Amino acid sequence: SQDTISATASTVEYVLEQETGYFTGSARVIYETGGVLFGDEEINEVELSSDALYVSIKEGIVRTAENLGSRRASVVAGNFTLDADLVTFTGTPEAVSSISADGSVVVDGPDLHVEADRISLSTDDRILKVDGNVVFSIMGQEGTADEVELNFATGWSIRLVGASVGGQLDDGLIDSINPGEGDN
User: Fold this and answer.
1) DSSP state letter for 125
2) Which listed site, 59, 65, 98, 146, has its alpha carbon 20 to 30 Å from 172?
3) In whole angstroms, how large is the CA radius of gyration of the chain?
4) Are 150 and 130 in contact (CB under 8 A)?
5) Contact 119, 106 (CB under 8 A)
6) What does the pLDDT look like over 12-33, one tens digit per residue?
7) How many CB atoms lie within 10 A of CB 61?
8) How far apart are CA 143 and CA 44, in angstroms?
9) Do 58 and 49 contact (CB within 8 A), yes or no?
10) Do 89 and 114 touch, CB atoms closer than 8 A?
11) Is 68 helix (H, G, I), strand (E, B) or coil?
12) Which residue has the higher pLDDT, 68 or 152?
């Protein structure tokens, strides 16, 4: 462990001077962090787990180790989960600043389910970008899209590209979209 990062695995090959190494066999890295990552939920820690992980504290990178046969990775942040073939965290020992994932990505959480080829999340602007064969259910609205951009910082605003959306609009949602226009 170093600062707020701890890592465990069955086998570790780590160069202390370079602060870089490989963790294999039930590898797990935990960032103890206070803040918001997905949605609006305050979290205490973010966990990345996989068969094999590459960790570089010096470069600020934790990622799945493709060269060691890592097959699937999982991220747990409070009530939100992310599963993908490849996952990369960037940041400092104190906090994750971005997460990117490729290959059969699935993100689940309260009011959110997304399946896609790729995602990226920046903690600076709190925007989740999803692209490639996107299937989504966000705040009760379901559909497909080429790209989805979900801005958590602005109250879950959504930008869709090449989308088809289904679902039902309730009166509360209609009123929030068209305030003061009565029943439409």
Assistant:
1) T
2) 146
3) 18
4) yes
5) no
6) 999 989 989 999 999 999 988 7
7) 14
8) 32
9) no
10) no
11) helix
12) 152
Ramachandran class of 167: left when φ > 0, alpha when ψ lies in -120 to 50, beta otherwise: left
CB 132 within 8 A of CB 119: no
Distance in angstroms (rounded) separating the CA atoms of residues 2 and 150? 32
Alpha-carbon torsion angle 21, 72, 133, 142, nearest 10: -110
By C-alpha distance, which of 18, 31, 51, 49 is closest to 97? 31
Place of tokens 């993100």: 107
Q: What would the two tokens of residue 91 be?
A: 């940041």
What is the C-alpha separation between 168 and 161, in angstroms, rounded? 20
d(CA 165, CA 167): 7
The pair of structure tokens assigned to 135 is 């299937």
Show the CA angle centred on residue 27, arms to residues 81 and 93, nearest 5°.
75
What is the full DSSP assignment across 72-121? -EEEEETTEEEEESEEEEEEETTEEEEEEEEEEEEEEETTEEEEEEEEEE
